[in-house]
Amino acid sequence: MKNKLSIVIYNFVAAILLSLWGTILLSWPILLVMMIAQRTNKLIHLSLFGALKNYSQLMSYLINPVSDKLQMSDLQSSLSGLIHFKDCKNLFSIALLLGCIWLFIFLYFEIWKKKKIVSLPHSYTICLLLLPLVVVLLSMGNFTNLFILFHRAMFTNNNWLFNPDTDPIILILTEEFFAACSATFLLIYELYFVRLLIKKGR
User: Fold this and answer.
1) CB proximity list for 84: less than 8 A, separation 6 or greater
2) Is 70 helix (H, G, I), strand (E, B) or coil?
3) DSSP string for residues in 4-62
4) Which residues contact 98 (CB under 8 A, 6 or more apart)?
5) What CA–CA distance (Å, rounded) separates 122 from 43?
6) Higher pLDDT, 142 or 73
7) Which tens digit of pLDDT belongs to each residue from 99-133?
8) Is 115 helix (H, G, I), strand (E, B) or coil?
9) d(CA 117, CA 105)
10) Given this model, what pLDDT does residue 105 score?
């Protein structure tokens, strides 16, 4: 049982991490599509390329563990905004650390020991597959409430409530953008366990 629990936790963490980093990589094209559709880059008086450049500077700060200062070329940040981004950076650092641990475990067992730890019993895979769908159904499709609940759970302050006058980056990071990123995260997560089911059925 203990071994099964370890494998369940391993796969759940793997799905979360792959979904997170996959969503981060896809956030650039998602943001581009959103800006084209909503013309939000005009609200910050930047071209599409200019807005993406500032977003890239923000993301570089968030995911680069050695970057200790956020500085966007064209967009200012308030003190509360900087504190929030620092809080986000801390979460990304934890995700990066967990990713390194997961990779070490994967290489050790799957490559060196030749022991399959990715495979899961069918019932466990189904449960993990349905878990986020239950959360989505409980939210009744109200992304705003889910978004607020997430931030209240992850952060101990209200610095995530940005003022566009002092933190204009929020004008391009719209609710629709975050909703699309959340949908991408969910899709990657689901595909991880769908793949396990397909492999199990062969």
Assistant:
1) 155, 157, 159, 160, 162
2) coil
3) HHHHHHHHHHHHHHHHHHHHHHHHHHHHHHHHHHH-GGGGGT--HHHHHHHHHHHHHHH
4) 13, 17
5) 49
6) 73
7) 888 888 888 877 776 666 667 788 888 989 988 88
8) coil
9) 9
10) 84
Q: What is the pLDDT of residues 36-71, one digit of tens each?
A: 999 999 999 999 999 999 999 999 999 998 898 999
pLDDT of residue 140 exceeding 90: no
Which of 88, 102, 83, 139 has its CA nearest to residue 17? 102
CB 118 within 8 A of CB 30: no
Say what the pTM is.
Answer: 0.89
Residues in the chain: 202
Cβ atoms of 188 and 21 within 8 Å: the answer is: no
152: tokens are 């209240």
Give the closest residue to 181 by CA, choosing from 64, 23, 53.
23
DSSP states of 140-169 as a string? TT-HHHHHHHHHHHH-SSSTTS--TTT-GG
Read off the tokens for 52: 């993406």
First-to-final CA distance of the chain: 25
Q: Quick one: average pLDDT of 11-32? A: 94
Q: With 90 as the cut, is the pLDDT of residue 34 above it?
A: yes
Instruction: Please give the biggest Cα pair distance in the chain.
Output: 58
Say whether pLDDT at 136 is over 90.
no
